[in-house]
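WARN retry 2 of 3 for item q-0093 after timeout on previous attempt; input resubmitted unchanged.
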Amino acid sequence: MKIGSIEFDSYPVFAAPMEDVSEPSFRYMCKKHGADLLYSEFVSSDAIVRQVKKTMRKLVTYEYERPFAMQLYGKEPGIMADAARIIEDLHPDIIDINFGCPVRKVAGKGAGAGLLQNIPKMIEIAERVVKAVSIPVTVKTRLGWDDSNKPIVDVAKQLQDVGVQALTIHGRTRAQMYTGEADWTLIGEVKNTPGITMPIIGNGDVDSPQKAKQMFEEYGVDAIMVGRASIGHPWIFKEIKHFLLTGEELPPMTLAQQVQELKEYMNKSVEVKGLPQGVIHMRRQFAKGFKGLDNFRDTRIKLLTRTDYDETLALLDEIVAKWGE
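OK item q-0093 returned
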């Protein structure tokens, strides 16, 4: 599979762009465990054009992250094209357009998944961005706005016609948000539509090596994208890749090994964000990383409220001592 001149090995597994998650320390862990393509958090085209410092900081990247995609969202074709030119000067490998974010502050203002209600404008934005830059432009979107409006097959054809070089499809509508099950049947239909030659990346509910294999085999996608299942569990990429390539499951990590990984993650987070922000960033990871431990409530509360680095390290060691083998 190729996106532009970027060639991927068999069974590519991409790390989904997630707001407030896909910052450098998270990407570092995903890359360490084998993610084939990393994405920035999505950034506003308006903020890029205005050079808002907080937004521009989201686009700080490192050579070891390549191949790397920067994801852009907005609703005005001209501003999106201008922002794409600015982003290209930062030397990403790919510019990805977000036509899939369902949250009200984005979709409700006509950007992200909101553009699924205005397909001509979506296509115009994609075309303007493609023409504005010389690097590959890709798109991430959803099946449609709701159950009565799922135009993804036709949308895919139009996006390809204006030069989009790969399409990621989240198997839900905007109305579903993140509830219910992802429907991969339409993703497979897009992939198998005559004339669709750009790579199709499937996204939604890939939470195990077995599910990843099923999606490749049943729907024929060129790559899969893992999102929420990687929060607190960035080594899922290693597990998936090993299973896809060998047919064998990796032995499950011990609790001590998991804690060691999360310590490394926290150290990287502190390196990137400083204190106490680097520790605070880990709360979502800790919340998902220790699911299933018995009588863990009090310790979980401590993990999710502490801001001191040394105290947090001590608490992680205490978790291994109490619940580890």
